[in-house]
Amino acid sequence: MTRNYKKYRSRINVVITATIFSWLCLCLRLFQVQILNGAQYKSALILQSQTKQVKMPSRGNFFDRDNRPLSRNVFHYTLSVNPKVVENKIELAKKISSVTGEPIKKYIDKLNSKTSFEFLERNLQRKQIGDLISSKYRGLRIEKNSRRYYPHNNIAAQLIGYTNDDNQGISGLEKYFESLLKGEPGWVFKTKGLSGKIQHKSGMPFKNPVNGNNVQLTLDLEYQSILEEELFKRQIETGAVSATGIILNPQNGEILAIGSTPGFDNNFFNNSDPNYHRIKAITDQFEPGSTYKVVSAISALMSTKVSAKQEFNCEDGQYQYYTIPIRDHKPYSMLSTSQIIQHSSNIGIIKIIEEVGPRALYNISRDFGFGSKTGIKLDGEVKGTLNSFVDWSAVSLGQIAMGHEVGVTAIQLAMAYCAIANGGYLLQPKLIRQVIDSENFSLYVEKPTIVRKVATEEIMGEIKKMLRDVILDGTGTNAEISGWKVAGKTGTAQKWISGKYSNDKFISNFVGFFPTEKPQLLSLIILDEPKPPYHWGGQGAAVAFKRVMKRIINMDDSILPPSQDIPRKFFSSNKTSIKKSIKPKSKNAENFVVTLSANKKLGNNIKIPELRGLSMRKAMDTLSKRGIVFDISGSGKVVWQHPKPGTLVGTGTICKVGLN
After folding, report:
1. What is the CATH architecture of 221-555?
2. Contact, 83 vs 116, CB < 8 A?
């Protein structure tokens, strides 16, 4: 050993030992960081360098029976902020105020909040926020989302409902089908740079969102528009508080239109009275009055104790029924069962039901679905009121026979008359045609549901004859439509207020269907508290029924009068002019009827057809089959066209059509 080594040996040993110890400590530390606490530090690193962003799905939409959209999704921007990290609050408040037009103080108050999150604005359009997106305001978050938009404003607003600020359904079908419509969110990881800028890099994990399913309804947008227009018109004319209506296909229970007035615009539901948001056809019960008399008549015919031709003494319009005086609107002496329904005699129906008894009336009422829910796919349906016959008083039998002491909903009464119209089958009301996923595959097709057989076809045939007589020479003459053999029943009921029947507040209602033999359409109209003389069912509600049905007949060429026995599939989709928004790829395409043209085109010369006098739908169909583009203005029947009929034109020529 050299002298120098011996001199510095102790120091060298210290350095070597310190070096080995340091490396040992470093190795232990690395073992702790990478092995023992590796997951914890990895999470912290990812948290600092990456961010997980949620990708919201597109909400499913509603379509009518002919695939016209009843709802849409529009993009909007949401401004939020973390007040704790905002540096220049006054400048930011001024900037947002210039965009929205709101007072600066509103935003300063939010920016001075002690919380770590505040919403500044929602539902802003891209053009509104301008250069805010590219601006550098620390703590400001701008999120692109979608919200609901209803293109037809107040049409079917109560049925469709609406969503809240988070795009969640909170009313109507939006709420009932929330799980089908909302879809599943996705996510994507993005990296954060030193400046805090977030960017996406390939290879980062992600999951695409699953868009919500679309729902096709049985609703017909044109029917719905007509119904709501006529309901509101009749409400104003009669001074009624409200009006409610339903249109159905009685053969399969499909609801073609349903609504009440006053209505509201579900794009701005916060600006309207919440009472207008209810679907009154399922939430509000009322005493139907004389429209319930057919239930009594059916129970009598089914018991075989009474026949349609059997006569009863109607006491010249005045009768003491136990402690209650009963009066008819006109004095009658002897009337048959059919005539009692035709002239809506209170005394006569009491005489009939006394022959039958309470058990039979109660049982047939239950068979018709009164006192229980119909099963319609909507929240809020009430079951009405029908007490067990063992709880009836001495006068209950006669009162219920006249349509008192029983509470029904509009949908219950409409479905009961559907059973009469279709020959005795009580159906479940059908609102949904099918559910289609975001890839346009049909997931579910709803079939008509028969609840039970109520009565024989022969008995229902007798009742339909009675209801036809009501229109021909009874209380429902105002509902007659020439050539269409309408059958129906009027109803007038005093409202039960403060423990007694009111003498000045009434429910006017009418139920009708046509043609009598093979009904294609059925409608119920209800007027709440109309002014006299419109409180009578035949003077108030029946007029609205006639107006609605006449407009539908003039508009829809698929409805044929009873005198024409031309076979045609009822309600086939024949609107080739409407561009289909949904094109199912499933093999089960029974709800989408393709219309094929048998017209052979000879070269490019096509003769312009005669369109004057046709409905809008028929005119569009005629032109579409010939390859002619149409430009239609107005509504109603075709009154003029250009070019004139017989003109030879080429394929793709525009034909202008005016309707009135």
Report:
1. 3-Layer(aba) Sandwich (3.40)
2. yes
